[in-house]
Structures are given as C-alpha cells and as structure tokens.
Design brief:
Blueprint lengths: L10 H17 L21 H13 L4 H22 L4 H25 L6 H15 L5 H8 L1 H13 L16 H22 L4 H12 L10 H25 L5 H33 L3 H18 L1 H15 L7 H4 L2 H24 L5 H9 L22
Helix pairs in contact: 1-3, 1-11, 1-12, 1-13, 1-15, 2-10, 2-15, 3-5, 3-9, 3-11, 4-5, 4-8, 5-9, 6-9, 7-11, 10-11, 11-12, 12-15, 13-15
Length: 401
C-alpha cells in the first residue's frame, strides 16, 4: 500500500511541526551559550535587559512547550501508522516489528546527533518512549488513556528539574565550552551514553503528550478539521490561554523551582492548543485559497505552506540546525556562545529557521522528502522494492474511515 503523497498531507500537523522546530531551537539556546552562571530555566544570571526580555518571551512560548508539542505530533504520527496498519489488515505483531525497526533507526540517528553535534538531543528519548507508545497502542483502547494519566507525575518532575537545575550554579553544558571538537566529542559521548541509560526514567513524561497524540489520531482530530471544529476551537482557545497563564509565575519569578511543575503542565495545554489552532489555520487558509484569496491572503498562505513544508522535513531541519549552531557557538567555531546573550542567540536561531523554509519548500515543490526522512524510511524498510513508498508518512487531508 503506497504512502500518502506529500501534496496530500494534512496541513495542520506539518504546520505545527514547523512552528515547533523554531520553539525547540529557541529553547535549546541554553545548550549553546556558555561562560555565564545559570539562573532558573537555565537562563543567564547576568543577562542584559534585552536578553532578559527575550528570556521572558522564550519562557512564555518555547520553554517546556516545543518538546511536548513535538511529542504530541510524534504520537499522532504513530497513531496514523497504526490506523493504516489496521485498515490493511496487518497483524499487531507485524506492526510492532515494523515500528521497532523504524524506532531503532531513529535511535541511531539520535545517538549520532548527540555525540557528533549537540548533547541536548531529544531524538533518543522520542525513539525509546515512542516505541513504548507503539506497544501500548496495540493493547486494549483503555490502556493508552491510563498510561497518559500515569505518566503525568513524570512530566511534572521534568518541569521541576528544568526549573531548579539553574539554582545549583553552573555556566552551561560542558561540551558547549570545550576548547576543541575532539574534547567536545568526548564530553558529548559521555553525556549521550549516560542519557541513554537514564532516558526511560527521566523522559517517561513524554509518554503523556505522545499518548494524547495517538488518541487524537484515532479521532482524526487534526485531519477532519471541519467535522472536529467544535472541539478544535475550544482546544485552541483554552489550550493557548492556559499555556500562557501557566507560564507566567515561573517566568516572572525565575526563583522558585516548584513553579516549574505548573510551567511544564501548562506547556502540555499550550501544545494541545497550538496543534488544534494550526489545524484550524491550515484548513482556513486552504479554503480561502480555493475561493481565490486576495493578494495579502495569498502571500500569507504561501508563507504558511512554507512552514508546513519545513514541518514535513522536521527531522532533517532539526539536525540541520545543530550543524549550523556547531559552527557558530563553540570555542572551536566562531565562539558566539561566549559572546552573545539570549537575544543575539535567538536572532541567529530565527534567521536559521527562516532560511530553512525556502529550502524545505523547494524539496516539497519537487515532491521530495527531506534527506533524513528519506534515509529513515529507507533503513526502516518503508519503501517498496521499486521505489514506491510502502508506509504512511503523514495523514491525508479530509481522510475518512
């Protein structure tokens, strides 16, 4: 069974992924800056007024928000694959084995990313917790909601630890200030291997957004936008509102670690709201384009579809960002990590994200996937013998049971 062509992918999830890429990169600036003491949320204690203003903006919209959003969409993708597996009569055992191969490939990509480029890699955690999601998905339907609830304390602990680590001092990740690449390679290898052992425990909280995403995929929540509008609209409104309000206390105080739990849980609400809002926005823009939009609306639609294209190549973009930042921030590069504060680093992140959009759009225009997406599918056995894809890469617009 052939996969969904790129031109027929649902716009909402890809739009949300494209936005999440920017949020994750902004949140990850703490992994590149060095030489300044940490405060709460790993922000620089001696920040300038401009840097602190950017810190506040990132804490409100990106910290503890990008990762839950990406995890939710990752779970949604797993749900799509499981649904299509059931539609073509595949056994649960075969589906699990196929997903095991796919997640092992993603795990290897994550390990290489963490060792060679960036010690703050999240792909390893997504691969391991994603495989757990696959196993739970093949059980009775009630198992997934129960797992989402049981993993909530772990999600809160994650937020708490993110909030208080900075209180213990430190001036950045060890690899960020390594004097040369080989030293950084050694430090990252230690961190990644230690993280590989601890990930099932420390990152178990990711199971909650992944499980929610998988449940949403069962409902086709982000695909059948018109049918689910009555649910998507309040999810957008209340999710974003709760997400922003829940980020205010820790953002304003940047002192009390216990507020990190609220910051993390509200980030999950923010992720739900943004995913729902992206689905509504993508559907609205497409409908206007179909009716013949005015010039301004047409340009905004082109920009939105560019972000969707970036979201469709999110794995390649995620690794590509690290390649750029490795050249700019460490001492053996341009050493901008020691010279810039949050504002300067965020400007580079934003410029990199914007630059990637036309590159992703060019791939999309030629009906090509991102290079790492293609590699993942090839190694995971998701392409047919004659080059025809054999597994779902994303949901179809307007798909029906």
């Amino acid at each position: 069974m052939s996969s969904v062509p790129l031109s027929q992918r649902a716009g909402g999830p890809d739009l949300a992924r494209g936005i999440a890429l920017l949020g994750i990169a902004l949140a990850n600036t703490v992994g590149w800056l060095h030489g300044s003491q940490w405060s709460v949320l790993l922000k620089q204690a001696d920040a300038t007024a401009l840097d602190r203003a950017v810190d506040v903006l990132i804490a409100l919209t990106a910290d503890n928000r990008g990762f839950p959003l990406f995890a939710l969409l990752f779970g949604y993708g797993i749900g799509i694959l499981h649904r299509r597996s059931q539609e073509r009569g595949e056994t649960a055992r075969r589906f699990v084995l196929r997903m095991l191969r796919r997640h092992l490939v993603l795990l290897v990509i994550g390990l290489l990313h963490g060792i060679l480029l960036f010690s703050g890699d999240i792909l390893v955690a997504y691969a391991l917790i994603g495989m757990l999601t696959v196993l739970l998905m093949t059980r009775r339907r009630i198992v997934m909601p129960i797992a989402a609830v049981l993993a909530l304390p772990a999600l809160g602990l994650w937020g708490w630890s993110d909030a208080v680590i900075g209180l213990g001092g430190g001036d950045g990740y060890a690899a960020a200030s390594a004097p040369d690449y080989l030293t950084g390679l050694e430090l990252r290898t230690r961190e990644v291997l230690r993280g590989l052992v601890l990930t099932p425990l420390l990152d178990l909280g990711l199971l909650t957004p992944m499980a929610i995403g998988a449940i949403a995929a069962r409902l086709r929540l982000l695909e059948q936008v018109q049918a689910n509008r009555d649910l998507l609209a309040p999810l957008t409104r209340w999710g974003l509102l709760v997400g922003l309000l829940g980020a205010v206390p820790l953002t304003a105080v940047l002192v009390l670690g216990t507020l990190g739990v609220l910051h993390q849980y509200s980030g999950l609400a923010f992720a739900l709201g943004l995913a729902a809002g992206a689905a509504l926005l993508a559907e609205t823009v497409r409908r206007r384009s179909a009716r013949g939009a005015r010039r301004g609306e047409h340009l905004s639609g082109v920009g939105m579809r560019g972000i969707e294209a970036l979201g469709a190549a999110s794995l390649s973009a995620y690794i590509g960002q690290s390649v750029v930042f490795l050249a700019l921030f460490p001492p053996y590069g341009l050493d901008l990590g020691a010279r810039l504060g949050t504002a300067g680093a965020a400007s580079i992140v934003l410029l990199t994200w914007i630059t990637m959009i036309p590159l992703a759009w060019a791939l999309h225009a030629h009906r090509r996937r991102g290079p790492l997406e293609h590699l993942l599918r090839l190694l995971a056995g998701s392409t047919a013998p004659h080059g025809t894809p054999a597994a779902a890469a994303g949901p179809r617009r307007g798909a029906r049971p």
